Amino acid sequence: MKQSVFVKLNKEKWEKYEHSLDGKNPSADDLSKIYVHLTEDLAFSKAKYPRTSLTVYLNKLSLKVHNLIYRNKPEDKGRFINFWKLEVPSEMYKSRMPMLYSFLIMAIGVLIGAMSAANDETFVRLILGDAYVDLTIQNIKDGNPMGIYGSSDEWSMFFSITSNNIRVSFLAFVAGILTSFGTGFILFRNGIMLGAFHYFFVQHGLFDETILSIWVHGTIEISAIIIAGGAGIRMGNALLFPGTFPRAYSFRKGAKSGLKIVIGLFPFFIMAGFIESFLTRYTEWPLAAKLFIILSSLFLIIYYFIYLPIRIQNGNSKN
Q1: Rounded to an integer, what distance in angstroms lies between the CA atom of residue 18 and that of residue 263?
Q2: Tens digit of each residue's pLDDT (9 = 90 or more) over 221-266
Q3: What tens digit of pLDDT does each residue of 272-284 get?
Q4: Strand intervals (E) in 143-230
Q5: Residue 191 near residue 107, CB atoms below 8 Å
């Protein structure tokens, strides 16, 4: 990209930032957003136009914002909170299309997994493994289809499940290094497993009792995998389609944005692990209680990862 084009695309934004800094004291949130955008522009300018007046200008402007941020120490203490309050939702809004692709890939995998299990009796064993299928069938015969969830103590199960959820989601993200197709493969494979798993229980007439019990924790768990997959697709797309930016710069930017989203998922990993370890084992709970947890979890996911990003974006557009 020619320097003149880069300046033309961003001049209005930089002037707006200068006006904000010269006017009333901007809030910590505004300073944080300005600093992020300016440092990204500065990094690009250093890579493409070193030793130019443009780079000097952006460096001075970034330094000015930096000094204002660290001068206001009381507000800076909220940096940790602002990460989840502002930065993660903002990155989610920027990643809304990769998130949609992630959901669609997973959904297609679920459909194919369920259809394959319906048309081939051996498919479930191929996907889930003979040991799991045989144990679950025996539990069904014993009248305790969810017996596997009570096979170990709660805390051991919690640490095991939480670490596994983090591993699977992080793998879905990191696979974006192999371009978007790497993450797509992980999502598709997990979707097939999920579809085959569900059909296995539906086949045994256990939809109400078992499937709803599983989704008590699965609502957050599966959502987290899809969101981590969306972060991986964004990173992979940044590598595949750098646009007018250098490929390495585009990839670093996409990886940084995606990593923020994955880190923002950590409280949800812990929540899903806790529910699965301490609550899912109680399959005798009434239907209303299960639906309450499922719908509450769904509301939390929709509010934080869909509604809040849109609200923050709309608020920024009005400023």
Answers
A1: 32
A2: 999 999 999 999 999 999 998 877 778 888 988 999 999 999 999 9
A3: 989 888 887 676 7
A4: none
A5: yes
Tell me the per-residue pLDDT of 31-79, one tens digit each, with 9 for 90 and over.
778 888 888 888 888 888 888 888 888 888 888 888 777 665 444 456 6
Tell me the C-alpha distance between 144 and 141, whole Å. 7
Alpha-carbon torsion angle 255, 259, 261, 264, nearest 10: -170
Output the CA–CA distances (angstroms, integers) from residue 254 to 170, 231, 301, 306, in the order listed.
Answer: 15, 8, 23, 20
The answer on pLDDT for 154 being more than 70 is yes
Say if residues 237 and 254 touch (Cβ distance below 8 Å).
yes
- Residue type at position 100: L
What sign results for the dihedral spanned by CA atoms 78, 83, 89, 93? positive
- pLDDT > 70 fraction of the chain, expressed in percent and rounded: 90
The encoded tokens of residue 260 equal: 């923020």
Alpha helix ranges (H) inside 120-153: 123-128, 130-141
Measured CA to CA in angstroms, residue 120 lies from 59, 113, 153, 200 at distances of 63, 10, 35, 11
Report the distance separating Cα 58 and Cα 18, nearest Å. 11
Torsion sign across C-alpha atoms 300, 302, 303, 309: positive
Could you tell me which of 21, 28, 55, 16 has the C-alpha nearest to residue 39? 55
Residue 171: closest CA among 80, 290, 262: 262
Split at pLDDT 50, 70, 90, the class of 82 is confident
Calpha distance 130→75 (Å, rounded): 56
| Among 108, 162, 129, CA closest to 276 | 162
Which DSSP string corresponds to 255-286?
HHHHHHHHHHTHHHHHHHHHHHHHTTT-TTS-
Q: CA separation (Å) from 100 to 74, 94, 227?
A: 39, 12, 9
- How many Å is the maximal CA-CA distance in the chain? 77
